[in-house]
Amino acid sequence: MRPHLALIEDEPDFALMCRSYLEHEGFTVTWAMDARAGKSVLHESSVDLAVLDLGLPDGSGLELLRALRSTSRLPVIVVTGRGAEADRVAGLEIGADDYLVKPFSQRELVARIRAVLRRSQPPEVSAVIQVGSLRIDTAARQASAEGVSLTLRPKEYALLEMLGEAPGRVFSTEQVLERIWGAAWQQPATVIEHVYRLRGKLAALPVPAPRITTVRGYGYRLDP
């Protein structure tokens, strides 16, 4: 997917040049001309990184960065004028991930953005979860036990993967609904039905396999 950038910059010619180059390099760019519009973009859009000019017409970019850092770890690259060393230092102290001094080349901007995005990615986890004889391939979204495949519906697989990520940990019905259905207001019977079907498929395997245990009053766990 194309990374989504917020470009918060008040110089139209410079902003349009940046946006055109960044889009050509494979990014989606939303441009905001001032702090108010920038705040709206940062809070209402799914943004992967912000390029923030500290000199905005309706307020300090530093204040916008400080407000953002109170609620978010969104990667931010601050942009300053050549002589604004104090602003650069303040931006880094508040929590900017990098900075650029105008004028700068578009190639350098792209390189800085890609470097910050790489650093901000969570560490890679194994694509395979192994719980006893059970092997869950999260990339292929398939599960098997000693070579015997399980035929699972999408929600059954998601439930098995969730439990398999932390064997022995008890997950509540509300946690399962929020993670798999995206809404804790769904009926608990939905989880009970899927646990029942998944438990039956694990039990039907011709080899020993982990089992789903009901912890009365708490939820469910996967036992090797």
TrEMBL record:
It holds the Pfam family Response_reg. Residues 126-224 form the OmpR/PhoB-type domain. The modification 4-aspartylphosphate is found at residue 53. PROSITE patterns: OMPR_PHOB (PS51755), RESPONSE_REGULATORY (PS50110). Signal peptide: none annotated. The keyword 4Fe-4S does not apply. Residues 126-224 bind DNA. InterPro entries: CheY-like_superfamily, OmpR/PhoB-type_DNA-bd, Sig_transdc_resp-reg_receiver, WalR-like, WH-like_DNA-bd_sf. SMART domains: REC (SM00448), Trans_reg_C (SM00862). It comes from the Bacteria. Keywords: DNA-binding, Phosphoprotein, Transcription, Transcription regulation. This is Response regulator transcription factor. Residues 4-117 form the Response regulatory domain.
